[in-house]
Design a protein that fits this description.
Helix content is 31%, strand content 26%. It has helices spanning 11-23, 54-59, 98-110, 154-160, 165-170, 193-205, 218-232, 235-238, 285-292, 299-306, 311-314, 320-324, and strands spanning 2-5, 30-34, 39-42, 63-66, 74-76, 80-88, 116-118, 122-125, 128-137, 141-149, 212-215, 245-253, 257-266, 269-276. The strands form 3 sheets. An 8-stranded mixed sheet has the order 7-8-9-10-6-2-1-11, sandwiched between helices. The model has no long low-confidence stretch (mean pLDDT 89). By secondary structure, the protein is an alpha+beta fold. Helix 1 crosses helix 7 and helix 3 (98-110) crosses helix 6 (193-205). A hairpin with a 3-residue loop joins strand 7 (116-118) and strand 8. The chain has 12 helices and 14 strands. It is elongated and about 75 Å long.
Length: 330
Amino acid sequence: MEYILNDSHDPFFNLSLEEYLFRVDDNNTYFWLWQNSSTVVIGKNQNAFHEVDHDFMKKNGITLARRMTGGGAVYHDLGNLNFSFITPSSNKKDYDFLQFSNQIIKALYALGIEAEYSGRNDLLIDGNKFSGSAQFVGESKILHHGTILFSSDLEMIENCLTPSKQKLTAHGVNSVKSRVTLLSKHMGSTMNIHEFKDNLAKEIFKNYDSVNIRKITAEELQTINKLRTEKYSSYEWNYGASPEFNYSKSIRFDSCGLINLSMDLKSGKISNCKITGDFFGTGDISEMEQLLKNKMYSREYILGAITSIDLKYYFNNLTLESFLLLFDNI
């Protein structure tokens, strides 16, 4: 087994590292522990516009990133420790969470913590979740990764994530925070997260006949950074990969009246746009609709489409910042 030393806190780099090692044509088993600065990481099939509170994230400097595995949105900070396993596998169809989760459970037990596997992909202590995991199954490899909430900010988790009411109802709780616990609260020692990381790694090593501890090479670093730039840090991957959906919002402005904005979004682009309402304005509103059509749904692209026009020609006395209130999460 190769244990990869990785001190990066950059979510785009860390997700690129995972895909790079997964795509390498070899039969090696890889394991590493890593941390991200404040980030919400969404699953590959999730809608980036629906899963999080973008306004809160923007105000608090929290990054959004999309991973290559499925599952739900999770919050990462430096109080959260992530683990990744990549192993050869001839099983091309089924997910196998237990073989990896058992290694974490066994290691935690050796450190004096009794945890249990629950449901599809959770680890619990006294019925409260502290770890969730996800997998990507390829032709000849499995990527399994997960979180360990060691000393994360639970208030930030609750404020960033906006899961559906149906999901919370299914779990019989009223908030995200009430479902989770911090591992540090269940430890008999005053171990910090760095000491915990080292001790956890040593326990995982015991499952393997040999362990090669190494850093990423300069050649590997070049390829990983290329993947970071071209994919994981891109708008097209993080937002454009969102499923097709419809968006609508209505606001009554004192200056001009009610504006209803309705859009269809596909691959992060506004594929169709309709503006209606009882607002006052001189210009033909279909011109405004055409300006927005086929633009990426982001502040940069929307501003690029409208900053050169006179908004007050279409909406009496409406300011640019007021108009942008019609667009959530940008």
